[in-house]
Amino acid sequence: MSGITIALSKGRIFDETLPLLEAAGIVPAENPESSRKLIIGTNQPDVRLVIVRASDTPTYVQYGAADLGIAGKDVLLEHGGEGLYQPLDLEIARCRLSVATREGFDYETASRPGGRIRVATKYIESAKAHFAEKGVHVDLIKLYGSMELAPLVGLADAIVDLVSTGGTLRANGLVEVEHIRDISSRLVVNQASLKLKHERIQPMLDAFAGAIGSKENA
Ligand code: ATP
Ligand code: MG
């Protein structure tokens, strides 16, 4: 396949990527929200989009099934980034990775060095690294969604999850007790594609980089 395949997830990443694609002269032929197609053409005959689950984007790019992709740093930290070149922070889909507990839970004491805590999360690798760095023993429970429920029903003391406005936490009587890191989405490029298709890919990277800059100046 000599064309360029770009892996994107539906929802906020797709929506926030549209202006960047447009800056690179790429306009999707269809909207993946209304189309059931998983492969979507563009106005550029040699560029197509593949619509994947957000957490699968690095995998498609790692194996070269897509040349480029856009993935949240949260997803990249879990994946590990093997085989991926991460040239650009696109500064889209911004949020933060945080620890939250039920109101009134004594996180201060539980998270002292040598302490022990039960944490439910989708972000096992990030949570493991965070508590290891603090010297806290952590029992991790893997969940795939609705993390906020876990502390309410006694499954866990705390959750590690993405927070943007904090509205979902508040609505469930949870409080953000620790900010782990800021999260935004990155462009990821297959390392072999970057070499073999450099002439086609580099101008796209330059256009994306320019579009981030101009957004900041706007
Ligand atoms: P799914 O919704 O299919 O279970 P997902 O939650 O990983 O998967 P999205 O909700 O589309 O997929 O999130 C994609 C990326 O957007 C995340 O990996 C993260 O980087 C970022 N993100 C997630 N939630 C928020 C949020 N509330 N505000 C801003 N960015 C977010
Ligand atoms: Mg989601």
Automatic annotation (TrEMBL):
Alphabetical keyword list: Amino-acid biosynthesis, ATP-binding, Cytoplasm, Glycosyltransferase, Histidine biosynthesis, Nucleotide-binding, Transferase
EC numbers, comma separated: 2.4.2.17
GO biological process, one term: L-histidine biosynthetic process
Family of this protein: Belongs to the ATP phosphoribosyltransferase family. Short subfamily.
Domain notes: Lacks the C-terminal regulatory region which is replaced by HisZ.
Xref: NCBIfam families: hisG
Protein name: ATP phosphoribosyltransferase
Organism of this sequence: Pseudazoarcus pumilus
